[in-house]
């Protein structure tokens, strides 16, 4: 079993739909990252969080430390949101990161 | 543009060879991270440097080594290359070890 699990692996949505991507982990962490990787390969860091909730535009990230679970929500999805979304956790105070396998999102007009 | 630069963009080489990948972090960033992304393994953390010192090692092979120089740029050295080393190699930088990371565009290494 992977230490960081993401679901779903693939997601297809119509423009305007509300999207949720989940990340569960089994190790103690100091922080959790959500990354976006576009088809061209470039990676952008969306959020880094260690508790609670963060919002940036149409994106919302939440984390529940007790349940070892985080969610990434996209409101009013748009075709330009099509990308792979990757969850990564920083293990304890080790500065090491473990990545999930990613969720491939396609949003159709 | 994240402000992180990586050279070269593409590298094609043969098995058994040695290559050096270079990363220049954003101005003022003290932390540099190296990652490997292959088709079968996904993204993997290799190594983290902070202000010239190694802070953490992940799944980095003994054939690989890295360093961060006084001007804070970093190099990842890959030697005795194997076909399985073909991958995208990303570096990322952050101001402090607990800050958001900014990723470079990556170096695509192909080992023939």
Description:
The complex is a heterodimer of chains A (109) and B (112). The model of chain A has no long low-confidence stretch (mean pLDDT 94). Chain A contains no helices and 11 strands. In chain A, the strands form 2 sheets. In chain A, strands 2, 4, 5, 9, 10 and 11 form a 6-stranded mixed sheet that branches. A 5-stranded antiparallel sheet of chain A has the order 1-3-8-7-6, with no helix packed on it. In chain A, a hairpin with a 4-residue loop joins strand 7 and strand 8. Chain A has strands at 4-7, 10-14, 19-25, 29-37, 43-49, 52-56, 59-64, 69-74, 83-91, 96-99, 103-108. With 112 residues, chain B is mostly beta strands. Chain B has no helices and 11 strands. In chain B, the strands form 2 sheets. In chain B, strands 2, 4, 5, 6, 9, 10 and 11 form a 7-stranded mixed sheet that branches. In chain B, strands 1-3-8-7 form a 4-stranded antiparallel sheet, with no helix packed on it. Chain B is globular and about 35 Å long. The A-B interface holds A 30-31, 33, 35, 41-45, 48, 86, 88, 94-102 and B 2, 33, 42-45, 48, 50, 55-58, 88, 90, 92, 97-103, 105-106.
Strand content of chain B: over 45%
Number of strands of chain B: 11
- According to DSSP, the number of beta strands of chain A is 11
Helix content of chain B: under 10%
Largest sheet of chain A, in brief, is: 6 strands, mixed
Instruction: Estimate the mean pLDDT confidence of chain A.
Output: 94
Oligomer: heterodimer
- What is the C-alpha radius of gyration of chain B, as a whole number of Å? 13 Å
Q: Tell me the major beta sheet of chain B.
A: 7 strands, mixed
List low-pLDDT spans of chain A: none
Share of helix of chain A, binned? under 10%
Tell the overall outline of chain A.
globular
Helix/strand order of chain A, N-terminal first: EEEEEEEEEEE
Contiguous low-pLDDT stretches of chain B (5 residues minimum) are none
- Specify the overall morphology of chain B: globular
Cα distance spanning the termini of chain B: 31 Å
User: How confident is the prediction overall: mean pLDDT of chain B?
Assistant: 94
Beta-strand residue percentage of chain A: over 45%
Biggest chain contact: A-B, 21 and 24 residues
């Amino acid at each position: 079993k992977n230490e960081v699990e993401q679901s779903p692996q693939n997601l297809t949505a119509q423009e305007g739909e509300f999207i949720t991507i989940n990340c569960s982990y089994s190790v103690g962490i100091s922080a959790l990252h959500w990354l976006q990787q576009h088809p061209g390969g470039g990676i952008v860091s969306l959020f880094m969080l260690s508790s609670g909730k963060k919002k940036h535009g149409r994106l919302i990230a939440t984390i529940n430390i007790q349940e070892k679970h985080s969610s990434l929500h996209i409101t009013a999805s748009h075709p330009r949101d099509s990308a792979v979304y990757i969850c990564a956790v920083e293990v304890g105070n080790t500065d090491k990161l473990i990545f999930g396998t990613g969720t491939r999102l396609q949003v159709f007009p | 543009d994240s402000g992180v630069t990586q050279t070269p963009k593409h590298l094609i080489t043969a098995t058994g060879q040695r290559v050096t990948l270079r990363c220049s972090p954003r101005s003022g960033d003290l932390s540099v991270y190296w990652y490997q992304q292959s088709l079968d393994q996904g993204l993997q953390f290799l190594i983290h440097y902070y202000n010239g010192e190694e802070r953490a090692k992940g799944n980095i092979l003994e054939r690989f080594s890295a360093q961060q120089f006084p001007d804070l740029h970093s190099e990842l050295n890959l030697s005795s290359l194997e076909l399985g080393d073909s991958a995208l190699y990303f570096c990322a930088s952050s101001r402090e070890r607990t800050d958001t990371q900014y990723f470079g565009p990556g170096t695509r290494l192909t080992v023939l």
